[in-house]
Design brief:
By secondary structure, this protein is α/β, with parallel strands linked by helices. It has 2 domains: 261 residues, Vaccinia Virus protein VP39 (Rossmann fold, 3-Layer(aba) Sandwich); 48 residues. It has 10 helices and 13 strands. The strands form 3 sheets. Strands 3-2-1-4-5-7-6-8 form an 8-stranded mixed β-sheet, with helices on both faces. A 3-stranded antiparallel β-sheet has the order 12-9-13, with helices on one face. A two-stranded antiparallel ribbon has the order 10-11. Helix 2 runs parallel beside helix 5. The protein is globular, with a radius of gyration of 21 Å. The protein binds S-adenosylmethionine. The site of S-adenosylmethionine has 26 residues, from helix 2 and strand 2.
């Protein structure tokens, strides 16, 4: 049997009669009581906004695998739901943009995590003149059954929680986010994904799953789950190296390479011909006419890039024109678009 890293080994020794959701709650109870630096660390920089001081304890308890705080989503003081609160860093960052009582709702199933988060927010208030703990409404609740009204938030976010869920639960969690979002509201997610097959023995290892190491889907499956929940537009905002599971330390014959993605899904109507998924592709027309019009809403001016969704990229490619360039996906889509 391959050697697991020390922390992963301790978790893997949980009694086998617990459901993986109980194991997950236990892992995060421990991570609430004793900060576990590096549990889910990434190369994503921690946002530093003018006048925002993130307390050290929040940095130590940063259990995310990307950022769900994006300025473009946060105009007009949106009401934000954040599921899986961790140490509270992203609650604080969201509060920066919505400085009203109860405008940021934090939901977590682990009592100890809620308590640590509350304490950390009090520290943040002592270090940030603008911040009042009243801005954040912490609620005990489960991602699979959210304690919120239908259509009640503008932005719903989760960071590094949904990858832990088995597919049926992920479906429920996404349906819950869809339910509580207002029309045209935004779901912002950050999770690991992998294009490598994960052996069942690792997938079924509750401890590794809870540590965000073995539940990942491929990016395509992940997007499919999101669009099946009803979101008409999906943007891939970032994709970064995350972890390697190697045969010496994990029970696998092959290296498994994980990446972390940042995704925004918009609750807009589903287009008749299917969702618009933006992975960073662009079309450039370089012919001699004044412009190129595909007759489907895309008018390309000579040698100017137009961001297009993957569906449009497929349809333009199928024209087989020698004056149209369709770029590869950059997985860094930051606005603009065709649909
Ligand atoms: C990997 S941590 C991420 C924490 C935080 N989002 C961050 O970026 O630092 C997962 C979080 O989800 C919480 N959690 C676990 N299972 C949950 C569930 N079923 N419903 C809601 N929260 C859950 C944990 O207590 C923990 O706070």
């Amino acid at each position: 049997m391959a050697v697991l890293r020390e922390r992963d080994q301790a978790v893997a020794e949980q009694p086998s009669n617990m459901s993986y959701l109980d194991t997950t709650a236990d892992v995060y109870k421990e991570a609430a009581l004793t900060p576990d630096v590096g549990l889910c660390c990434t190369t994503t920089p921690v946002w530093a906004f003018p006048g925002l001081e993130v307390p050290e304890i929040m940095l130590q308890m940063n259990y995310g695998c990307g950022s769900t705080v994006h300025l473009r989503d946060l105009t007009n003081e949106p009401r934000v739901l954040y599921v899986g609160v961790g140490g509270g860093m992203e609650l604080l960052q969201f509060s920066y943009f919505s400085r009203n009582s109860g405008s940021i709702i934090g939901v977590d199933v682990v009592d100890e995590m809620l308590k640590s988060c509350q304490q950390n927010l009090a520290i943040a208030a002592s270090q940030n003149d603008w911040f009042d703990t009243e801005f954040v409404d912490l609620r005990k609740g489960n991602a699979l059954d959210l304690p919120l009204e239908d259509a009640s938030v503008d932005v719903a976010a989760q960071n590094c929680l949904f990858n832990i869920f088995e597919k049926d639960d992920l479906k429920k969690a996404l349906a819950e986010m869809y339910r509580v979002l207002k029309p045209y509201g935004r779901l912002v997610l950050s999770d690991p994904v992998t294009e490598d097959p994960i052996p069942d023995k690792l997938r079924n290892d509750e401890g590794l799953r809870a540590l965000c190491l073995s539940g990942s889907l491929s990016l395509e499956e992940y997007i499919e789950m999101i669009t099946e929940a009803g979101f008409g537009t999906v943007e891939i905002r970032a994709k970064r190296p995350y972890r390697v599971l190697d045969p010496e330390h994990y029970d696998t014959d092959q290296l498994i390479y994980l990446e972390s993605v940042e995704v925004c899904a918009i609750k807009d109507p589903m287009p008749a011909d299917g969702p618009c998924v933006f992975t960073g592709k662009n079309a450039i027309y370089f012919g001699s006419e004044e412009f190129f019009d595909d007759g489907n809403g895309h008018v390309l001016m000579p040698n100017q890039p137009m961001a297009i969704c993957d569906k449009t990229a497929r349809s333009l490619s199928s024209l087989n024109r020698n004056d149209l360039y369709i770029s590869e996906s950059t997985y860094f889509y930051d606005g603009g678009g065709c649909c």
